[in-house]
Write a structure and sequence with these properties.
This protein is α+β, with helices and mostly antiparallel strands. The chain folds into two domains: about 110 residues, Gcn5-related N-acetyltransferase (GNAT) (Aminopeptidase), CATH 3.40.630.30; about 140 residues. The strands form two sheets. Strands 1, 2, 3, 4, 5, 6, 7, 10, 11, 12, 13, 14 and 15 form a 13-stranded mixed sheet that branches. Strands 8-9 form a two-stranded antiparallel ribbon. It is globular. The two termini are about 25 Å apart. The model has no long low-confidence stretch (mean pLDDT about 95). The chain binds coenzyme A. Coenzyme A binds next to strand 4, helix 3 and helix 4.
């Protein structure tokens, strides 16, 4: 069987090819979260083992690919950190590896497996091809913008409770919700999540928002209802990124990104990319496992 469960003794083989590809640090973090191993040079050692596992792919005995499988909750699984050695790309390894990982997810009782990948507007990408070949659905194209070190003067009205934001999202046919607890992840809006989702249900200036605080310093906002005026909601959202070492991540449909970012620049004139904010856009693909 070409696919094997990752073992810490395989680390040198993973490093040998994965460090030549982009974002090797992320692969190390995933190893850290799921195997308890602290890879050399990793910034910190995760005390909490996260549900899930790491997997590798061998070809003629050589370790040629790596991927993490996170078990987000009892229904959903998530693939992240897929890497295939440069000299064997475009030979169908990622596609076959992903297909095998679907089987692992299904064996754990998960009924959906998803992943996110960078949204290159109007451009093709091997990952999009793989997702299509494997019959995955494009569940959303979302912008995810992070903010930190914003000026102290920003303040807005306190969020008010929204009683059943889960039902609201269901009526709007939203498919997924974002959270950034150890990775950028989306989970499905299925009935089993109702209580958890409703704990984060709020209104800011008459706009429903889902707020999640998984880490003491970071706040995640899911802004899935288009505000009539971003200026009404932004001060409350961005005020969470004005204190030292606090940051905010906002998930919203990518189609609004120009208007959203223009409103940010109006509220925080001179806001600096990479020094105070980082904009990005992601495609969220999902596969319903039978
Ligand atoms: C992305 C990556 C995992 C793909 O692995 P891979 O083994 O080369 O992928 P596969 O060969 O299974 O599939 C690639 C498919 O994309 C197609 N493809 C290649 N270049 C393409 C492009 N520019 N646009 C669209 N499709 C493309 C290939 O033809 C192939 O489709 P086919 O099997 O129908 O011919 C690998 O390139 C990699 O490790 N990249 C660096 C890390 C990375 O970006 N990881 C993904 C993070 S989300």
């Amino acid at each position: 069987m070409p696919m094997q469960r990752y073992h810490p003794r395989m680390y040198p083989e993973v490093e040998a090819f994965a460090k030549k590809l982009k974002w090797f640090g992320y692969v190390k973090e995933i190893i850290n979260w799921h195997s308890g191993q602290r890879p050399p040079g990793s910034r910190w050692h995760s005390r909490k083992r996260l549900p899930g596992s790491c997997w590798v792919w061998r070809q003629h005995g050589r370790l040629v690919a790596f991927c993490g499988l996170r078990l987000l909750n009892p229904q959903d699984a998530w693939l992240y950190g897929m890497r295939v050695t440069k000299d064997l790309q475009n030979k169908g390894i990622a596609r076959r590896f992903t297909q095998e990982l679907f089987r692992v997810a299904r064996r754990t009782g998960r009924t959906w497996v998803g992943f996110n990948t960078y949204h290159y507007q109007g451009k093709p990408s091997p990952i999009y091809t793989i997702a299509e070949r494997l019959g995955m659905e494009l569940d959303a194209v979302h912008a995810v913008d992070s903010f930190w070190k914003l000026p102290k003067r920003i303040s807005g009205p306190r969020p008010r409770r929204f009683t059943d934001i889960f039902l609201h999202y269901q009526a709007r046919e939203e498919k997924t919700l974002f959270f950034d607890d150890h990775g950028w992840l989306w989970y499905r809006l299925v009935t089993q999540r109702r209580r958890q989702v409703n704990e984060g249900g709020f209104m800011i200036a008459d706009v429903p928002v889902h707020i999640a605080r998984y880490q003491p310093r970071g706040t995640t906002f899911n802004l899935l209802d288009h505000p009539s005026d971003f200026a009404g909601v932004l001060p409350t959202i961005l005020s969470r990124a004005t204190a030292k070492k606090k940051w905010v991540t906002v998930n919203y449909p990518a189609a609004w990104s120009r208007r959203f970012r223009r409103a940010v620049r109006e509220l925080v004139p001179g806001v600096k990319m990479n020094k105070q904010y980082y904009p990005s856009a992601w495609r969220i693909y999902g596969k319903y496992l039978k």
